[in-house]
Specification:
It contains 6 helices and 15 strands. The chain has 277 residues and is of the alpha+beta class. The protein has one domain: Penicillin V Acylase, Chain A. Strands 3-6-7-8-11-12-13 form a 7-stranded antiparallel beta sheet, covered by helices on one side. Strand 11 and strand 12 form a beta hairpin. The N and C termini lie far apart (39 Å).
Length: 277
């Protein structure tokens, strides 16, 4: 089995009266990618094993189909329609993280969608977090590459972490702060309590996944408690810098010719939901 323990991403949401920001630090083996504009009104089909160019428009093919209601801009590393994060014209953003779990179940073959196309589907079809939560059962999530969980925020200030729980997607939206890494949100929150009397700047990242989540959570709470609060866009990039994963030249040199490269922070992305930027 492939060791995914060094794939680490971090997400969080900050907000004040002028800005609502969703930030993502994207850590992976490779940093290539595209920024893609996805138009509204396009008919789409979920990827499935039986899909070919010849049956793409055959509605007898048992797979999910929809028409995009909202245009969006996404960051894609693997292909069009398979984003790692994005924002739509309604002011809703979705960011993904690898989820450190083995609890994935077989998806329905007739109404399933892969873990990255799921992001595009939400951006295409829904305008707010509540719509996403209300339709979590619309499609069955199928893991093709890595198990994922998702951070969703909208221009109203609503946020949710969506992840698999007992084989079904579940939304965690009743939280005082929204920041997450690769562990489940509940375990991340429980772990962060050990630092409840600590300033975020003093946290040393010894446990790569949980300490990064705790640092992001504490920085998010410190932002919420600041009077007056700092600019959330600038502060978002401060958080991303604080939890970034940098690999030294020696590690890269040792990797050459030896399989999968070390994971590191390649993308730092902040979506401003009120201005839809």
């Amino acid at each position: 089995m492939e060791d995914n323990s060094n794939i680490m991403c971090t997400t969080f949401t900050l907000k004040n009266v002028n800005h609502i920001a969703l930030g993502q630090g994207y850590d992976f083996y490779y940093g290539h990618g595209l920024v893609i504009v996805n138009k509204r009104g396009i008919e789409k089909v979920a990827l499935c094993d039986d899909l070919t160019r010849g049956n793409l428009y055959d509605h007898h093919l048992k797979t999910a189909r929809w028409t995009a209601k909202h245009g969006s801009v996404t960051f894609n590393q693997f292909a069009r329609e398979l984003p790692t994060c994005g924002i739509n014209e309604a002011g809703m953003a979705v960011a993904s993280m690898w989820h450190d779990t083995e609890k994935t179940l077989p998806a329905s073959s007739e109404n399933s969608i892969t873990e990255l196309q799921w992001i595009q589907y939400q951006l295409d079809c829904y305008s707010c977090v509540d719509e996403v939560i209300g339709n979590l059962d619309a499609l069955s999530l199928k893991t093709e590459i890595y198990p994922m969980h998702y951070h969703i925020s909208d221009k109203s200030g609503r946020s949710a972490i969506v992840e698999m729980d007992n084989g079904k997607l579940k939304a965690f939206d009743d939280l005082d702060s929204f920041a997450c890494s690769n562990e489940g949100i509940i375990k991340s929150l429980e772990y962060s309590r050990k630092y409840q009397n600590t300033r975020a700047g003093s946290i040393e990242i010894r446990e790569p996944i949980l300490d990064r989540a705790a640092k992001a959570l504490l920085m998010t709470r410190e932002f919420n408690e600041s009077q007056p609060p700092p600019d959330p866009i600038d502060y978002s990039f401060n958080i991303l810098d604080a939890v970034s994963l940098q690999v030294g030249f020696k590690s890269l040199f040792n990797w050459l010719g030896r399989g999968i490269p070390p994971s590191q922070t390649f993308w730092q992305i902040v979506f401003d939901l009120l201005t839809r930027q």
